[in-house]
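Entry:
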Amino acid sequence: MKTILELIEQRNKAWTAAKNFAESHQNAQGVLSDEDSAVYDRMEKEIMDITREINRMQRADALEAELNKPTSTPLTGKPDSTSFTGSGKTGRASDEYKNAMLTALRTNFKQVSNVLQEGIDANGGYLVPAEWDSRLIDVLNEENIMRKLGTVITTSGEHKINITATKPAAAWIDEGENLEFTDSTFSQVVLDAYKLSVAVKVSEELLFDNAFNLESYLIEQLGSALSNSEEEAFLLGSGENKPLGIFVGNTETGVTTDDENITADNIIDLVYSLKRPYRKKACFILNDKTLATVRKIKDDTGAYLWQPALTAGEPDRLLGYPVYTSAYAPTVEAGKPAIAFGDMSYYNIGDRGTRSFAELRELFAGNGMIGYVMKTRCDAKNVLPEAIQLLVIGGGADTEADG
């Protein structure tokens, strides 16, 4: 089969031959005879046939090239502001929602964009933008020791956690005897959602000043207040309308001191009152005033039990275990717990997820302030009592932690 180029060359030769034939066979009047005209017609037909074949082959090549094209075109440049428009985010994650929230806050919710309608919560407040929610969580994690040490579970409703109430036991048997198995039984720990509200005031002068970074101010102030309230509840909460704290209930007493003095033996006994599997990730939690006392304790050789951290940012250590302090941990008081030691990952925090804003109408109008309230919902408790042991100060009427 000839190629297109070969056919084009053949057509050119045929056309040259046809022209030469016509010129050489014309009579004196410049006309071909009937016989010569018939020959020329055959030569012209050959040229037309070659032309049709060339056109057919060119169409076939074009179709082949089209069918061989890739179904998508690869990117050859980096996306930038000129080639990519829009963040691609929707809902509370969109820039429109965040900007509308800032406008609403600066006008004390007198200018509310329709875009905020998708973020209205059940109580009529407005869910915070997703970016703010993430930054608030970062503040909580940085400032709240229990969010660092515990297990945070994001829930959309009541959350039930199954825990083993009894453990299976192994037994030696003689050959040929029947196997006997013990069944583990399970109990449930329920994480509900208690409401926590925190209010913040902003002067009208600052609010109306566009140079004032309202977004960062609110996140810092609200995040710090939420963190403090949560940490207090996670340590001392009664379990009524707030989480159950580790120093209050669902925790075991490991050691009770003889009096209000904490000794080296008490600390050692506390460590070994915790079962070995839980000691792998165990740490101490205590008040700063209690820490001042513990740092002075020496062992029988005169060496301090306290070990300062060797790396910046790392916690100090007591008997080799990390130590965390909180202003909300209880102080030394007869009959009350003073130190918690254990694997705090068994303290589960059920976080209901999103937080919401609402305005405080007219509450601070008299002194030129505008108020906002943020609401969040969470619950927390120790799901395995034996995973955390308490040191209780002796000498009081109540020397046992609530179980």
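The chain has ten helices and 15 strands.
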